[in-house]
Fold this sequence. Notes:
Elements: H1 2-28, E1 40-43, E2 49-54, E3 61-68, H2 83-90, H3 102-110, E4 116-118, E5 123-125, E6 128-130, E7 138-140, E8 143-145, H4 148-157, H5 163-180, H6 184-196, H7 210-214, H8 220-230, E9 236-242, H9 246-257, E10 278-284, E11 291-298, H10 306-318, H11 324-332, E12 336-341, E13 354-362, H12 364-370, H13 372-387, H14 398-415, H15 420-434, H16 439-448, H17 452-462, E14 468-474, E15 483-488
Parallel strand pairs: 2-9, 10-14, 10-15
Antiparallel strand pairs: 1-2, 3-5, 3-6, 3-9, 4-5, 7-8, 11-13, 11-14, 12-13
Helix pairs in contact: 2-8, 4-9, 10-14, 10-16, 11-13
Amino acid sequence: xxxxxxxxxxxxxxxxxxxxxxxxxxxxxxxxxxxxxxxxxxxxxxxxxxxxxxxxxxxxxxxxxxxxxxxxxxxxxxxxxxxxxxxxxxxxxxxxxxxxxxxxxxxxxxxxxxxxxxxxxxxxxxxxxxxxxxxxxxxxxxxxxxxxxxxxxxxxxxxxxxxxxxxxxxxxxxxxxxxxxxxxxxxxxxxxxxxxxxxxxxxxxxxxxxxxxxxxxxxxxxxxxxxxxxxxxxxxxxxxxxxxxxxxxxxxxxxxxxxxxxxxxxxxxxxxxxxxxxxxxxxxxxxxxxxxxxxxxxxxxxxxxxxxxxxxxxxxxxxxxxxxxxxxxxxxxxxxxxxxxxxxxxxxxxxxxxxxxxxxxxxxxxxxxxxxxxxxxxxxxxxxxxxxxxxxxxxxxxxxxxxxxxxxxxxxxxxxxxxxxxxxxxxxxxxxxxxxxxxxxxxxxxxxxxxxxxxxxxxxxxxxxxxxxxxxxxxxxxxxxxxxxxxxxxx
Length: 491
C-alpha cells in the first residue's frame, strides 16, 4: 500500500512539474518581433557604434546616417548657445583633401541626396545614395571619386575649413534665426524655455539665443571646442539602412574610422523639480490670432518603461480628432481654430525631462469682443481636460479606447517606415537613449502592456499645478500674473 501510494504521488509530482515547466516556457517565450527588419551591430575599439539594417526591397539604395548624440542640450556655457545647429551647417563645408568645397563637390559627383537636422539631443546627418557608390573609387564623368564612406569618415574625423568660410556661414545662421522666430509658436517656445528650465540647457532653443547667434562669427574657438567634445566616435552611431551586406559595411567602417580618437564629453547639469504654476506672455506686434500654450513638465524618455509608453499614446488621448478634449474645443464649444501638440513629439521624447505643450489658436474676432476672459475659458477647458486623465480608468470604455489607441500607434509607426531615410531616422531617434538594438521592440511591448491605470498614475504624477506653465501671445498687455516678454514679431 505504501509503495503504491508512493508511485501515485511520484506520478502526480511529475505531472505537476511538467505543467509548471510548460507554463514557465510559455512565460519565457520571447514576444513576437514588431520591428520588421533585422538589426546587426558592431562597436569599434574607439567606441563607435555601427548599426546595419538590411532592406533589400529598396533595391540599389542606401541611407548612410551619422547620429551625433549632441544637440542644444550639450551647450552648457553662457554665451555659447546654438553651436550644435551651427555645426550642422559647418560640416558640409569640409575641405576634402584641402580643396575648398571639396566634400560637397565629391558628394554631387556621387549623386547623393545630402541633408541633416539638429534637435535638442541629437544631430542627424543622412545622405542617401546608390549602394554601388558607398565604396570607392567610383568612376564618374569627372573622374574617379572617393566613395561615400570615405568622404563621411573624413569630415567627421578631420573637419577642415578656413576661418573666413566659418564666419560667412555663421553669419548666415542669423537669417535663419529671424525666419524661424517670425513664427509665433517658435517665439513662444523661445520665451517660455528659460522660465521652465532656469538651470538646464533646455532653457534655450536649438538655434540658440539671439545675441549668441549674432556673435557666432566670433565663436571660432568655442565652436571647435564643441566639435572636439562631441564629434567623437564614442558619442556617435552610424545607422546604415538599405540594400547592403552588413559584413561589407563593417569592413569599410573599420577601414576608415578605426583611427578616430574618443573623448570624454562634459556632464550636463540637472534641472531642479518644477515649482509652478508659471505664466509667460509674448506681446506680438502684429494683431494676429491669439495663441495659448498649456504646458506640463514630463519625464525623460526610457524606451521600454511604462512612463515612456504613456508618453507615446498621449497625443492620441489629447489632440487626436476623436479625443474628448479636442472634440470639446473644436466642435462642441468651437472656441479654438486648431489644437495640437507643439513641435510634435520632439519635446516629449527627450533625454532629460522636458515638456508637453498643448497649443491652441484662438479666434481673433472673438478675442477682440471678449478679451482675456475668452482666453481664460479656453485655458480652463484645456487644464480640465488634461486633469481628466488622472481618472482615465474610471471613464466608461477606457480599456476599449486604450486598445484602439495602442493599435493606431503601432500601425502609424509601421506606416512611417516607408523609405531608407525614415527607417534610419526612426531607429536612431530611439536607439540614442540606451543604444539598444532591440529598442523598437521594447518600446512597443511596453505600449502593448499599458493599462488604463497606468494612464491614471502618469497623469496624477505629472499633470499637476507644480508642473504647469502657461504661455500666451497676442497684440497687447500680459494677463495678470504673467512674466511679459517684450513686443516682437513680424508686421
